[in-house]
Design brief:
Shape of chain B: globular
Number of helices of chain B: 8
Strand content of chain A: 35-45%
Distance between the termini of chain B: 99 Å
Structural class of chain B: alpha+beta
Strand order of the largest sheet of chain B: 3-4-6-7-8-9
Number of strands of chain A: 29
Helix content of chain A: 10-25%
Largest interface: A-B, 74 and 60 residues
Oligomer: heterodimer
Number of helices of chain A: 4
Strand content of chain B: 15-25%
């Protein structure tokens, strides 16, 4: 008995000792070189970043730091560590040159943790062509949520193995968290508000997005494939998120109502937008009070009439193998005002009126939860299959689905939105 | 008694473990900064290299330091540039049909940046050096900043903003903050497929007759033993001089300009690979050149416009819009340019405007 106790004590003390070396404050000891800085050291920090060696941790003690920008390139095993989002703040508001606040290029095993980065002219942190990337406990924010903000707050692109966790993004004029042309990414336990899109996964494979909350954006979550890029996306699971109250105007373009590419296409009031994507599963999410379209399922044709010319190994415009099930979806009683000025939003407003006009029994029902643009591979190959692109929907309720027949939307005589969900119910 | 033994054992173990743990912590933290001793170090001052004789700012090359020029040059705020290459004695560069020539280890490539001040004097700003390290066979970058006295330039890694008033090519006065790149900025343009490489000295860029000379530059290099493997000159590609309307078409000149000013990043494997906009002179894909191509991640840099190039409509083409801006986040190229290259913008607008409009 006593023996057991002694060994238990020994084990415990050993653990404590090991923790003392590896623990929170001493995580830097995993790195060959440990640098630490305090506010006022900015010039030294810039120089240190330009002279970094492999396996270096850089600790930013609490306080506010002012930078034009910071960059690190061609390294292995680098950690940028703050003392917490409310303690360590990197401010880029006085930037006169360059795009990004922090620019990371070609680093293997890169981590940034525990700080706020704010108010750059371009993206706040861009991580390009890197592997084993961890972005944790990072707040990336612009104080003004308008077109003066940079595009992306947290922007890993062309990376492999990315984790974005416990982060908060605000004010991006494109997407708060944007994972582009990446293989294997996890976005979890993050929040985002007042961005055009809370989060976007683009041309990215093997991504999982869960336990996040995106609210008060133009659109909550987007999964897109665009043509002409380095890879096709797909195999994205999106579950147990809370996408709510995304009804803000689309400020992706200065002084107007949105560009007609990328995130500019997201109408105010979108919960989830799936565009030209494949092998996507959306389940167990709360999609509440996104008052234009809780879920938009669209093809490249919805935004580009020449999408077919761009088909190649890396791009297919029609969304395929899309599974939407078990989500809790609710909508408010009217469209948000800004959607009436948006080029896609207007179409949805028209679709709701048309549906209610075609079927008086609908009375004044809202547009159904899932808005499908109706472009299937049948239009490419003249086929007649009723569900050629393997859509699978399993959502309760009677006003779940509309094929908005975008193909004929410009031709009022032929335009016939269709609410029959039967062909698309999961088998 | 037994109890005491266990206690003793515990204490001994703990002491040993603590010592071991402390030691391992210590070992790690004392390794700091000892890993570079074997690698190449740039010298402190430009004069330390002995590249030039007499007054340094005259850039009068010593024997073995070879002045060269390229057919179309990158615009960097109307900077006046001088280029030199230094091959180690007895070595020779190998011809390559694509990409930079294959330079031997320990080659230096030197590029000096100056501006013309309002008194029409040449004022030295910075000298950039690329060095191909024999240790790991990779190119290294460094910038040297000229002193006020214009007597020497000193190693400078952090970049700088220098307020200057310069004369442009037409003699107009322009005040700006000239940007000296930091060493990571250098890499942004010079990295292709994760490897730092020279940009200018490609065979097709060097394939010209310098002003006041009669022999082609590549032929001179070959004759002087600097270059080997060059095929017959008429089979070597030539990048057009974007200013030479007499010999090259508008399309050739525009594409040469875009190649030199954009394609170090806008190429597969370059810093802008993610954009899918590829502007190499050899590029033939309409979408990659930007024709009716939607941007990917330009954000507000696109100015609310929808396509990189709309044939016949430069006013609504993002390419021309971004070249015609000096605002960070919009201006392209992102680096090395704080003022608008009016002549370049004119060329690209003219090129776009003469493209036949797309059929609906």
């Amino acid at each position: 008995m006593r023996k057991t106790f002694s060994f238990a004590a020994l084990a415990l003390i050993m653990a404590v000792l090991l923790f003392a070396c590896k623990g929170d404050k001493e995580k830097k000891l995993d790195y060959t070189t440990s640098l630490s800085f305090k506010p006022g050291d900015e010039a030294k920090i810039v120089e240190a970043f330009l002279s970094l060696k492999d396996s270096t941790s850089i600790l930013f003690a609490q306080g506010i730091y002012k930078f034009e920008n910071l960059s690190a390139a061609q390294l292995k095993h680098i950690l940028i560590q703050g003392e917490g989002f409310d303690k360590t703040i990197l401010d880029f508001s006085s930037q006169t040159t360059g795009g990004e606040g922090i620019r990371i290029t070609n680093i293997k095993d890169f981590s940034i943790d525990g700080m706020t980065i704010r108010d750059s002219k371009g993206d706040l942190i861009k991580i390009n062509n890197s592997r084993d990337v961890k972005v944790t406990n990072l707040h990336a924010v612009w104080k003004n949520a308008d077109s003066t903000s940079g595009g992306y707050a947290i922007y890993p692109v062309m990376c492999k193995n990315v984790l974005v966790e416990n982060c908060y993004v605000e004010g991006s004029s494109d997407a708060g968290i944007y994972v582009g042309q990446t293989d294997s990414a996890i976005v979890r336990n993050c929040k985002g508000a007042k961005n055009v899109a809370g989060c976007e996964i683009e041309n990215t494979t093997n991504a999982e997005v869960y336990n996040n909350e995106f609210y008060n954006n133009t659109a909550g979550f987007l999964v897109f494939d665009l043509p002409g890029l380095s890879q096709r996306g797909g195999h994205v699971k999106v579950h147990d998120n809370n996408f709510h109250d995304n009804n803000n105007r689309n400020f992706a373009k200065a002084g107007s109502f949105g560009t007609s590419w990328g995130v500019g296409n997201a109408p105010p009031g979108s919960g989830v937008v799936i565009l030209a994507a494949s092998n996507i599963e959306i389940y167990n999410n709360r999609i509440i009070n996104n008052n234009t379209a809780p879920v938009i399922l669209a093809s490249g044709f919805a935004v580009d009439e020449k999408a077919a010319e761009k088909i190649n190994d890396h791009y297919f415009p029609i969304s395929k193998n899309i599974s939407i099930h078990g989500n809790t979806i609710e909508m408010g009683s009217t469209f948000p005002e800004p959607t009436k000025e948006h080029h896609i939003g207007k179409l949805l407003v028209a679709a709701e009126s048309k549906l209610n006009a075609l079927d008086p029994a609908r009375k004044n029902k809202r547009i159904p939860f899932i808005m499908y643009d109706g472009f299937s591979t049948n239009i490419l190959n003249g086929g007649k299959a009723i569900n050629p692109d393997s859509l699978c929907i399993n959502q309760p309720g009677d006003n779940v689905f509309v094929n908005a027949d975008f193909l004929n939307i410009a031709n009022p005589g032929k335009w016939h939105p269709e609410t029959n969900i039967a062909p698309f119910i999961c088998k | 008694m037994k109890r005491v033994n266990y206690f003793l054992l515990l204490i001994i173990c703990l002491t040993a473990i603590s010592a071991a743990v402390m030691q391992s912590c210590k070992t790690k933290s004392t390794q700091t900064g000892t890993q570079t001793s074997a690698s190449f170090q740039f010298k402190e001052k430009l004069s330390d290299y002995n590249f030039f004789r007499n007054r340094l700012k005259d850039l009068d090359p010593n024997p073995g330091v070879v002045h060269y020029e390229i057919s179309t040059t990158l615009f960097s705020d109307y900077a006046v540039k001088d280029r030199y290459v230094v091959l180690p004695k007895g070595t020779v560069a190998k011809y390559t049909a694509e990409g930079p020539l294959d330079f031997p280890d320990s080659t230096f490539i030197i590029k000096n940046f100056a501006y013309t001040n309002t008194a029409h004097q040449k004022i030295m700003i910075e000298t950039r050096i690329l060095f191909k390290s024999p240790v790991d066979k990779t190119w290294k970058v460094m910038a040297y900043l000229w002193n006020k006295e214009q007597t020497d330039a000193v190693k400078h890694i952090t970049g700088a903003q220098l307020p200057i008033t310069l004369l442009d090519d037409e003699g107009n006065k322009i005040s700006t903050n000239y940007l000296v790149p930091n060493t990571n900025d250098c890499k942004r343009c010079h990295i292709k497929n994760d490897i730092i490489a020279p940009i200018g000295p490609k065979a097709r860029n060097l394939n010209l007759i310098l002003p006041g000379q009669t022999e082609n530059q590549l032929a001179q290099w070959t004759a002087n033993g600097l270059l080997t493997g060059t095929p017959a000159l008429d089979s070597v590609q030539q990048l057009p001089n974007w200013k030479d309307k007499a010999h090259f078409s508008l399309d050739q000149r525009a594409r040469a300009y875009l190649d030199v000013n954009c394609a170090h990043c806008h190429t597969k494997g370059g810093d802008a690979t993610n954009t899918g906009l590829f502007l190499e002179y050899e590029q033939t894909g309409r979408d990659h050149i930007g024709i009716m191509k939607e941007p990917v991640s330009a954000g507000n840099g696109a100015g609310g416009l929808n396509y990189d190039i709309i044939p016949g409509d430069a006013a609504h083409s993002i390419l021309a819009y971004r070249m015609n801006s000096s605002t960070p986040g919009t201006a392209m190229p992102e680096m090395a340019r704080t003022i608008i290259h009016q002549e370049g913008v004119r060329l690209i607008k003219e090129w776009i405007n003469q493209m036949p409009p797309e059929k609906k």
